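hi! just following up on the protien thing from before. the input was this:
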Amino acid sequence: MKKIAYFSLTAALFSFVLFSGCKNTGKSGEEKGQSDTTATEQKEQMAEKTEAGVPPNTLTPEEETDGWVLLFDGKTPDGWRGYGKDHFPSGWEVVDGTLHCKGSGRGEAGGKEGGDIIYAKRKFKDFDLKLEWKISPGGNSGIFYLARETDKPIWTNAPEMQVLDNERHPDAKLGKDGNRQAGALYDLIPAKPQTAKPAGEWNQVEIIVYRGTVIHKMNGETVLEYHLWTPEWDSLVAQSKFPKYNPDWANVAEEGYIGLQDHGDDVWYRNIKIKDLSK
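and the predicted 3d structure came back as:
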Protein backbone atom coordinates (compact mmCIF):
# COMPACT_ATOMS: atom_id res chain seq x y z
CA MET A 1 0.00 0.00 0.00
CA LYS A 2 2.82 2.45 0.75
CA LYS A 3 4.44 1.77 -2.65
CA ILE A 4 1.15 2.41 -4.46
CA ALA A 5 0.59 5.68 -2.56
CA TYR A 6 4.15 6.79 -3.32
CA PHE A 7 3.73 6.03 -7.03
CA SER A 8 0.41 7.96 -7.18
CA LEU A 9 1.91 11.01 -5.51
CA THR A 10 4.89 11.02 -7.87
CA ALA A 11 2.62 10.76 -10.94
CA ALA A 12 0.50 13.66 -9.70
CA LEU A 13 3.56 15.85 -9.19
CA PHE A 14 4.87 15.00 -12.69
CA SER A 15 1.52 15.93 -14.27
CA PHE A 16 1.44 19.25 -12.46
CA VAL A 17 4.97 20.18 -13.59
CA LEU A 18 4.22 19.14 -17.19
CA PHE A 19 0.99 21.18 -17.28
CA SER A 20 2.70 24.23 -15.77
CA GLY A 21 5.57 24.08 -18.28
CA CYS A 22 3.20 23.91 -21.28
CA LYS A 23 0.77 26.55 -20.08
CA ASN A 24 0.56 29.60 -22.39
CA THR A 25 1.19 32.55 -20.14
CA GLY A 26 1.58 35.01 -23.04
CA LYS A 27 -0.92 36.57 -25.50
CA SER A 28 -3.09 34.53 -27.83
CA GLY A 29 -1.99 34.20 -31.45
CA GLU A 30 -4.56 36.78 -32.46
CA GLU A 31 -3.45 39.24 -29.78
CA LYS A 32 0.19 38.70 -30.67
CA GLY A 33 -0.56 39.34 -34.34
CA GLN A 34 -2.35 42.57 -33.47
CA SER A 35 0.60 43.64 -31.33
CA ASP A 36 3.08 42.93 -34.13
CA THR A 37 0.90 44.83 -36.62
CA THR A 38 0.67 47.83 -34.31
CA ALA A 39 4.43 47.83 -33.84
CA THR A 40 4.97 47.68 -37.60
CA GLU A 41 2.58 50.59 -38.17
CA GLN A 42 4.35 52.63 -35.51
CA LYS A 43 7.71 51.95 -37.16
CA GLU A 44 6.34 52.98 -40.58
CA GLN A 45 4.86 56.17 -39.15
CA MET A 46 8.12 56.97 -37.37
CA ALA A 47 10.10 56.32 -40.56
CA GLU A 48 7.91 58.76 -42.47
CA LYS A 49 8.20 61.41 -39.79
CA THR A 50 11.98 61.14 -39.67
CA GLU A 51 12.70 60.57 -43.35
CA ALA A 52 16.35 61.28 -44.23
CA GLY A 53 16.97 61.66 -40.50
CA VAL A 54 15.05 64.94 -40.15
CA PRO A 55 11.35 65.83 -39.83
CA PRO A 56 9.50 66.94 -42.99
CA ASN A 57 9.92 70.56 -44.12
CA THR A 58 13.28 71.05 -42.44
CA LEU A 59 16.86 71.19 -43.70
CA THR A 60 19.84 69.27 -42.43
CA PRO A 61 22.88 71.32 -41.31
CA GLU A 62 24.69 70.01 -44.40
CA GLU A 63 21.90 71.27 -46.70
CA GLU A 64 21.94 74.69 -45.07
CA THR A 65 25.70 74.91 -45.51
CA ASP A 66 25.33 73.79 -49.12
CA GLY A 67 22.91 76.63 -49.91
CA TRP A 68 19.51 74.90 -49.85
CA VAL A 69 16.48 76.93 -48.77
CA LEU A 70 12.91 75.87 -47.96
CA LEU A 71 10.06 77.20 -50.10
CA PHE A 72 7.48 75.86 -47.61
CA ASP A 73 7.81 75.71 -43.82
CA GLY A 74 4.98 73.21 -43.28
CA LYS A 75 3.01 75.69 -41.18
CA THR A 76 1.99 78.65 -43.33
CA PRO A 77 1.62 79.43 -47.06
CA ASP A 78 4.15 82.23 -46.71
CA GLY A 79 5.59 83.09 -50.12
CA TRP A 80 2.84 81.31 -52.05
CA ARG A 81 -0.13 82.92 -53.79
CA GLY A 82 -2.51 82.16 -56.60
CA TYR A 83 -1.25 82.50 -60.16
CA GLY A 84 -2.65 85.83 -61.37
CA LYS A 85 -3.92 86.59 -57.86
CA ASP A 86 -2.70 88.71 -54.97
CA HIS A 87 -3.60 86.15 -52.28
CA PHE A 88 -3.43 82.48 -51.36
CA PRO A 89 -6.64 80.86 -52.70
CA SER A 90 -9.07 79.08 -50.39
CA GLY A 91 -8.99 76.05 -52.68
CA TRP A 92 -5.63 75.29 -51.10
CA GLU A 93 -4.76 74.81 -47.44
CA VAL A 94 -1.84 74.02 -45.16
CA VAL A 95 -2.65 70.80 -43.30
CA ASP A 96 -0.50 68.20 -41.52
CA GLY A 97 2.70 69.79 -42.82
CA THR A 98 1.58 69.80 -46.45
CA LEU A 99 0.32 72.18 -49.12
CA HIS A 100 -2.99 70.51 -49.96
CA CYS A 101 -5.10 71.26 -53.02
CA LYS A 102 -8.68 70.51 -52.01
CA GLY A 103 -10.23 68.43 -54.77
CA SER A 104 -13.43 69.82 -56.27
CA GLY A 105 -14.38 66.67 -58.15
CA ARG A 106 -14.77 68.81 -61.29
CA GLY A 107 -11.38 68.22 -62.91
CA GLU A 108 -9.95 71.16 -64.83
CA ALA A 109 -13.14 73.14 -64.19
CA GLY A 110 -11.94 73.39 -60.60
CA GLY A 111 -13.75 74.82 -57.63
CA LYS A 112 -14.97 78.29 -56.75
CA GLU A 113 -11.68 79.64 -55.38
CA GLY A 114 -8.93 77.27 -56.43
CA GLY A 115 -6.43 77.67 -59.21
CA ASP A 116 -2.70 77.09 -59.64
CA ILE A 117 -0.31 78.58 -57.11
CA ILE A 118 3.22 79.96 -57.46
CA TYR A 119 6.08 80.71 -55.13
CA ALA A 120 6.06 84.45 -55.69
CA LYS A 121 8.94 85.74 -53.57
CA ARG A 122 11.37 85.35 -56.43
CA LYS A 123 12.03 83.81 -59.83
CA PHE A 124 14.65 81.14 -60.44
CA LYS A 125 17.02 80.66 -63.38
CA ASP A 126 19.48 77.81 -62.75
CA PHE A 127 18.43 75.64 -59.82
CA ASP A 128 18.03 72.25 -58.19
CA LEU A 129 14.45 71.79 -56.92
CA LYS A 130 13.40 68.91 -54.65
CA LEU A 131 9.95 68.12 -53.27
CA GLU A 132 7.55 65.31 -52.44
CA TRP A 133 4.03 64.75 -53.75
CA LYS A 134 1.15 62.42 -52.96
CA ILE A 135 -1.85 62.14 -55.27
CA SER A 136 -5.39 60.97 -54.52
CA PRO A 137 -6.91 57.96 -56.39
CA GLY A 138 -7.59 59.03 -59.97
CA GLY A 139 -5.87 62.37 -59.34
CA ASN A 140 -3.94 64.72 -61.61
CA SER A 141 -1.65 67.69 -60.87
CA GLY A 142 1.70 69.08 -61.97
CA ILE A 143 4.85 70.99 -61.05
CA PHE A 144 5.64 74.03 -63.23
CA TYR A 145 9.00 75.76 -63.54
CA LEU A 146 10.45 78.71 -65.49
CA ALA A 147 6.89 80.06 -65.53
CA ARG A 148 5.85 83.52 -66.66
CA GLU A 149 2.85 85.17 -65.03
CA THR A 150 0.55 86.41 -67.82
CA ASP A 151 -3.16 86.79 -68.47
CA LYS A 152 -3.17 83.23 -69.86
CA PRO A 153 -2.98 79.96 -67.84
CA ILE A 154 0.42 78.96 -66.53
CA TRP A 155 0.56 75.80 -68.67
CA THR A 156 0.53 77.93 -71.85
CA ASN A 157 4.11 79.05 -71.19
CA ALA A 158 5.81 76.80 -68.63
CA PRO A 159 7.25 73.26 -68.71
CA GLU A 160 5.44 70.84 -66.40
CA MET A 161 6.54 67.73 -64.56
CA GLN A 162 3.42 65.58 -64.54
CA VAL A 163 1.89 64.41 -61.24
CA LEU A 164 -0.61 61.59 -61.80
CA ASP A 165 -2.25 58.41 -60.58
CA ASN A 166 -1.03 56.28 -63.48
CA GLU A 167 -3.34 53.41 -62.63
CA ARG A 168 -6.64 55.28 -62.79
CA HIS A 169 -6.39 58.62 -64.58
CA PRO A 170 -7.09 58.48 -68.36
CA ASP A 171 -4.16 60.83 -69.09
CA ALA A 172 -1.80 57.92 -68.43
CA LYS A 173 -2.96 56.32 -71.68
CA LEU A 174 -3.17 59.51 -73.75
CA GLY A 175 -0.41 61.48 -75.46
CA LYS A 176 2.49 59.54 -77.01
CA ASP A 177 4.52 56.72 -75.49
CA GLY A 178 3.47 57.58 -71.93
CA ASN A 179 4.43 61.26 -72.10
CA ARG A 180 1.51 62.17 -69.85
CA GLN A 181 2.37 59.78 -67.04
CA ALA A 182 3.89 60.78 -63.70
CA GLY A 183 7.35 62.30 -63.95
CA ALA A 184 7.02 63.10 -67.65
CA LEU A 185 7.65 66.47 -69.23
CA TYR A 186 3.93 66.76 -69.87
CA ASP A 187 2.88 65.94 -73.46
CA LEU A 188 6.52 66.06 -74.61
CA ILE A 189 8.88 63.47 -73.08
CA PRO A 190 7.94 60.29 -71.13
CA ALA A 191 9.55 59.36 -67.82
CA LYS A 192 11.68 56.24 -68.33
CA PRO A 193 11.98 54.21 -66.26
CA GLN A 194 8.52 54.82 -64.82
CA THR A 195 9.16 54.84 -61.08
CA ALA A 196 6.01 56.49 -59.67
CA LYS A 197 4.43 54.97 -56.57
CA PRO A 198 0.69 54.23 -56.33
CA ALA A 199 -1.88 56.84 -55.30
CA GLY A 200 -1.69 57.63 -51.60
CA GLU A 201 2.08 57.12 -51.34
CA TRP A 202 4.77 59.81 -51.24
CA ASN A 203 6.99 60.34 -54.29
CA GLN A 204 10.32 62.16 -54.10
CA VAL A 205 11.14 64.21 -57.20
CA GLU A 206 13.93 66.50 -58.32
CA ILE A 207 14.11 68.98 -61.19
CA ILE A 208 17.51 70.35 -62.19
CA VAL A 209 17.76 73.30 -64.58
CA TYR A 210 21.20 74.55 -65.62
CA ARG A 211 21.92 76.70 -68.66
CA GLY A 212 19.21 75.09 -70.72
CA THR A 213 19.80 71.50 -69.61
CA VAL A 214 16.82 70.08 -67.70
CA ILE A 215 16.74 66.82 -65.73
CA HIS A 216 13.75 65.12 -64.08
CA LYS A 217 14.36 62.60 -61.29
CA MET A 218 11.70 60.53 -59.54
CA ASN A 219 12.20 58.33 -56.48
CA GLY A 220 15.97 58.36 -56.86
CA GLU A 221 16.26 57.68 -60.60
CA THR A 222 16.83 60.01 -63.53
CA VAL A 223 13.79 59.57 -65.77
CA LEU A 224 14.45 62.14 -68.52
CA GLU A 225 16.80 64.84 -69.77
CA TYR A 226 16.35 67.51 -72.44
CA HIS A 227 17.85 70.78 -73.67
CA LEU A 228 15.94 74.02 -74.07
CA TRP A 229 16.27 76.44 -77.01
CA THR A 230 17.83 73.89 -79.39
CA PRO A 231 16.57 72.78 -82.84
CA GLU A 232 15.63 69.42 -81.28
CA TRP A 233 13.57 71.25 -78.64
CA ASP A 234 11.79 73.37 -81.23
CA SER A 235 10.92 70.26 -83.26
CA LEU A 236 9.64 68.43 -80.19
CA VAL A 237 7.36 71.30 -79.15
CA ALA A 238 6.06 71.73 -82.71
CA GLN A 239 4.67 68.18 -82.56
CA SER A 240 2.87 68.76 -79.25
CA LYS A 241 -0.43 70.42 -78.41
CA PHE A 242 1.18 73.61 -77.08
CA PRO A 243 1.71 75.72 -80.25
CA LYS A 244 -2.05 75.68 -80.75
CA TYR A 245 -2.43 77.65 -77.52
CA ASN A 246 0.79 79.67 -77.71
CA PRO A 247 2.79 79.80 -80.96
CA ASP A 248 5.82 81.00 -78.96
CA TRP A 249 5.61 78.21 -76.34
CA ALA A 250 9.04 76.78 -77.24
CA ASN A 251 10.67 80.06 -76.21
CA VAL A 252 10.63 79.13 -72.53
CA ALA A 253 11.71 81.88 -70.14
CA GLU A 254 15.32 81.82 -68.94
CA GLU A 255 14.06 82.74 -65.46
CA GLY A 256 10.65 82.10 -63.94
CA TYR A 257 8.38 81.00 -61.11
CA ILE A 258 7.89 77.59 -59.49
CA GLY A 259 4.21 76.60 -59.59
CA LEU A 260 1.85 73.84 -58.42
CA GLN A 261 -1.22 72.85 -60.37
CA ASP A 262 -4.85 72.71 -59.31
CA HIS A 263 -6.39 70.12 -61.65
CA GLY A 264 -9.50 69.67 -59.50
CA ASP A 265 -8.11 66.69 -57.54
CA ASP A 266 -6.72 66.25 -54.06
CA VAL A 267 -2.94 66.43 -54.05
CA TRP A 268 -0.41 67.06 -51.29
CA TYR A 269 3.07 68.63 -51.48
CA ARG A 270 5.79 68.90 -48.84
CA ASN A 271 9.58 69.14 -48.36
CA ILE A 272 9.81 71.81 -51.07
CA LYS A 273 13.38 73.04 -51.17
CA ILE A 274 15.65 74.63 -53.75
CA LYS A 275 19.31 75.38 -54.35
CA ASP A 276 20.23 78.30 -56.57
CA LEU A 277 22.81 77.15 -59.14
CA SER A 278 23.22 80.54 -60.81
CA LYS A 279 25.47 81.97 -58.11
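The longest helix spans residues 2-22.
The chain has two domains: 2-47, 57-276.
cheers
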